[in-house]
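explain this:

___
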Amino acid sequence: MIDDRQEEKMIKENVYFDGNVKSLGFSQQDGESTVGVMAPGQYTFGTGAPERMTVVKGALTIKRVTDADWVTFTAGEAFEVAGNSSFDLQVEVATAYLCEFLPA
């Protein structure tokens, strides 16, 4: 059984953009990840490490610094963003996602 102190270390809550984006962060042997939900809106995220974002339900329309055009990803699709970069998101419907932090 996991006590409350162990659970606090295992799961970290993240809240961004006045509560419109929320995620739970966790670590496994292969690295750190977050799973979360975004409310409709427009957001800009910065990256430290490279990331892979997988849309679980809904859709994310993204534009990375290196992209000329906006690209939409739907449930089951994934995209990667370079480390030390940023990307813009347009979210039309509440969208669930998995973000995996990749080795540099």
